[in-house]
Amino acid sequence: MKRFITKSTLIILPIILLYIPPAIYFNSNRGDLVRLGYLADKYPDYRNIFSEEFKNDNHFTKVSEDPAQKDFEVMIVGDSFSMQHNYGYKTYLGKKPGLRVLYLDRELHDNPFQTMYSLLNGDFFDTYQIKYIVLQSAERYFTERISFDKTKVLDCAALRDLARKRKPDEQEAHSNFKFPSTSVFRFAIYNLLYPFDDNGWFSPVYKAELTDKYFSVDNQNLLFHYLDIDALETNNSQPKVAALNGIINDLANKLKGRGIKLIFLPSPDKYGIYYDYLVAKDKYPRPLFYELLDKLGKDYLYVDAKAILTAALKRKKDIYFYDDTHWSPWASILLADEIDRLIKSDS
């Protein structure tokens, strides 16, 4: 019996020892890059610098609430960059005097460009009176999202039905490691290999050195998602960018026929925002999307988010979250200010 216990212990002990580091240093409820890259969470108090912004009230109305009021100055249609609630740009925009903001819940739709055509084909704009629509999309999905069915219909009844069927709108919870779990081995492998390769050869998350500290942590690393690089193959294509711009112009003209102005808010990938500050940027491809888009004619109001946020890097840290693919409340404030400026200058 004693020999059996000893052998069993020898077999189990290495697995238990392997579990200890992630149990201490990994928190799966942190930013998406820490979670996806199984990174050791060395900065558990990092987001405390935004604590006051996290206390904001939500200064906007959701479509899922089926509000009795149907007239709004601004409507937001976008992806995860528009989901940020009390610290997102839609909240700061809703704080502006005279701007009532309607938000089309992310859970009620998928591709923002498809969604806009589907709403135009339905009764939505017969029901709601909107003056400006902010159409937002993440950079990595730009050219991927230009292939869709322009004949689909999304009407108010369908939106109400989707709202009834969906799960309660609450922050997604991610469970920590369970024992045993393949995640334990991923944590060990990724963190052991990062010193030898920017994404440890296998991780979906890159960790690359920056020329200076652009985040409120004690290192000069940039964390970013591999899709930021993979998307460049098409996002750096002039014909693809021209096709996207054509779709946005078409939407703008269709909305103009209904008395609505379109504001396009492209959300830069984190990689592109910090690209010029990578120590080893010569081994990475340069993002060209915004350079290509700048040269094209626009029938819509344009929020040059990349120019605004790259300029902000020179005077403030944490324009994007250190541990996440998304921008921080500091960026949300700047973008809300720019949208407000565009609306006022257009009036």
Give me a quick take on this structure.
α1 packs across α8 and α5 runs parallel beside α11.
What would you note in describing this structure?
The chain has 347 residues and is α/β, with parallel strands linked by helices. The chain has a domain at 49-166 and 228-346: 3-Layer(aba) Sandwich (Rossmann fold). It contains 15 helices and eight strands. The chain has helices spanning 2-25, 32-36, 80-83, 89-94, 112-121, 124-127, 156-165, 182-193, 227-230, 232-235, 238-256, 270-274, 289-294, 305-312, 329-346, and strands at 61-62, 71-77, 101-103, 129-138, 205-209, 221-225, 261-267, 301-302. It has a six-stranded parallel sheet, with helices on both faces. Strands 5-6 form a two-stranded antiparallel sheet. Helix 5 runs parallel beside helix 11. The N and C termini lie far apart (85 Å). The model is unreliable at 169-175 (pLDDT under 50).
Major sheet: order of its strands? 1-3-2-4-7-8
The level of helicity is: 40-55%
Low-confidence stretches: 169-175
Question: What integer value in Å does the Rg equal?
Answer: 23 Å
Number of distinct beta strands: 8
CATH topology of the domain at 49-166 and 228-346: Rossmann fold
The average pLDDT score comes to 88
Beta-strand content estimate: 5-15%
Number of helices: 15
